[in-house]
Design goal:
There is one protein chain. The chain is 73% helix and 0% strand. The protein has helices at residues 2-35, 37-50, 56-86.
Length: 108
């Protein structure tokens, strides 16, 4: 049906955009992490020293649980602030794509 085809087309375009953005960002971040890995190792060694993390268990808990939780929270806050800022009047140019398709309620 035209309704389903329009929704599928819109979904595929959104999926393609999302995949391109995700791949680009991950590639960019990976390249920067590779370039800066020596400085990052020194930075985190200093953090372990300041926090007096000497054992392998305490370093692992910090590196695997605490620091990623902080980073994820910061990322969510930034994304939320960005999305709230970009919300304005919602104008859609998808006149040819219906937003809701209901099955016919009449019986044949």
């Amino acid at each position: 049906t035209p309704c389903a085809a329009g929704r599928v087309r819109k979904w595929l375009v959104q999926l393609g955009i999302w995949l391109v953005l995700l791949t680009t960002v991950r590639l960019f971040v990976s390249i920067w992490l590779f370039i800066l890995q020596g400085k990052l190792y020194d930075f985190y060694a200093d953090i372990f020293q300041v926090l007096d993390l000497r054992g392998a268990t305490s370093k692992t808990i910090f590196a695997v649980l605490l620091f990623p939780a902080f980073g994820d929270t910061l990322q969510i806050m930034i994304q939320d602030r960005f999305l709230r800022k970009s919300q304005g009047p919602q104008i859609s140019n998808d006149d040819d794509v219906p937003t809701l398709c209901l099955p016919s309620l009449t019986r044949v």
